[in-house]
Structures are given as C-alpha cells and as structure tokens.
Design brief:
Layout: E1 6-10, H1 26-31, E2 36-41, H2 49-58, E3 62-67, H3 80-100, E4 104-107, H4 121-143, E5 148-151, H5 165-175, E6 180-185, H6 186-192, H7 196-203, E7 207-212, H8 227-236, E8 242-245, H9 253-258, H10 269-284
Parallel strand pairs: 1-2, 1-8, 2-3, 3-4, 4-5, 5-6, 6-7, 7-8
Helix pairs in contact: 2-3, 3-4, 4-5, 5-7, 7-8
Length: about 280
Amino acid sequence: MSNTISFGVSTWLWQSPFTSDSISLFPKIKEMGFDTVEIPVEDPARIDGKLVKKALDDNGLCATVCGAFGPTKDFTADDAALHSNSFNYIANCFELCAVLGTNFFAGPMYSAVGKARMVSEEQRKIEWNRAVNNLGKVCKMAEDYGLSIALEPLNRFESDLVNTAKDVMRLVNDINQSNAKVLLDGFHMTIEEKNIREAINLVGDKLIHVQVSENHRGIPGTGLTAWGDFKKGLDDINYKGALVIESFTPEIKELAGAVCIWKNLADSQDQFAVKGIDFLKKTFA
C-alpha cells in the first residue's frame, strides 16, 4: 500500500455476485478516479483469479477481497458442518487473495450475517468460544498464504456477537494471533458507536481496512456521519490503508432485500460512485 490513503469501491455497488465477467466494471472504476476495487466473494468457483488479476493490472487497479457469510457459513453454529463450510470457503478466498496479490481477507467471518437473537449468557459464551477457536484456526491457515484477516463488527440488526470496536478488539485479543486484524465500516459505526474517533483509536494499529457509506447506506457526505471525527481518528492512528465505498444496488433484489435497501439511494449507481469519491477525496486526501 502507498504512503497515503487509497480510495476504493466495492463492485456490490453495481452487481451481485462478482464473477469473472465483472471485470467489465474495471475501466469505469479507474476512470472515476478509484485506486482500488473491492471484490466481494459470494461464489469463489465463478471467479478466475488469473483473469481478474490481469484485468486489475491492465487498468492500474489494486484489489481488496471481502467475504459473504450467509446462514450456511457460521462458526458459532451447533452444526459442525457449517463450520466446515466456512473453512472451505475461506480457504478458497485465501487462494484468490494470493493470486490477486492482496495481503488480507476481510469480513464478519465470526458468525452468520443476520444472526441476531436474544440468547442466554451461557449460550453466548459457548458461541463466543466457538468463534474464537475457529478463527484461531483461520489465522493459522492465513499464515500459509502470508495473509491477515480483517474482522468486521456489524450493527445489532445483523449480528448479536460483535457490534462495536470494543467487541472486535475483545475478539482479536481472545484469538491472540498476530494476523488477526480489524475492518471498520462507517455504516455500522454510525449505529453502534458513541464516538467514531474514539472507536478508531481503540482499534489503533489493528485497523487495516475501512469501508464507508452513509448512515442510510447512501452517498458519503449526504447523511449524519461525523466525517470530521472520522478523519481525525484515521489521522490519529496514521492509517494508510484503503477507504472503500460499500453500498448496494436495489436492482439486485436478493442482495437488496438482505441489506434492507428498498429504494434508490442515488439517481444512478455511477452517480453514487462519482459523488462519493469526490467527497472522500475532499475530506480525507
């Protein structure tokens, strides 16, 4: 990574799932002024890593890779088969990371997204320990690829396990592996944190990736996010990673339903990206 923050966008802004054909987005993403394209992996079998790597190089783009953890991939589940699904999926994502030349794999891989329930403290402890033990194994797997993992807190409506910077640091400390790191997402932070700057400082040098949209999932700069505090926090810790716009298109109904986007958040998805990077560069560059 360069000595300054790089600006990226997730292909989820336009498409789902990412496939080898999605490289058709890369020239547009580069022309808009982005340095980085975030590749969300829903089905690794549909992605030809070498083809994607060549397209990245041809367009002068770097990649980051994040995971999608639905109900069939759950390290906290009673059913060990769901643990196996997660390990196999993550191994495939690590292989893709290695081909694309990324140095970490990101996402809320501790549990299934959408698993938000009121359970007993005893059950919570059981599930927490499963997440810690399984992610410890994931960190060992990642070492073989020279990778870190970036664990992402989610808001309370999407997870009952890890919601805040404090939660994710407890998880990282319990895993106790040097390559267990953190991804913070501004959307979730506006719901869960009391102070964005303090949350970023709490994570400190464990923060290796940042995703952003607005509190309403819309264009950065059009909502309630405390962007001044966000910038101060990243400056405090001398953050040098990517700042990636992550939102979703309402045109892909299954994905839009999963993230509760019921209406257009911009006149077009291209407008979302262009206005978003313009605001981010003015704010953070």
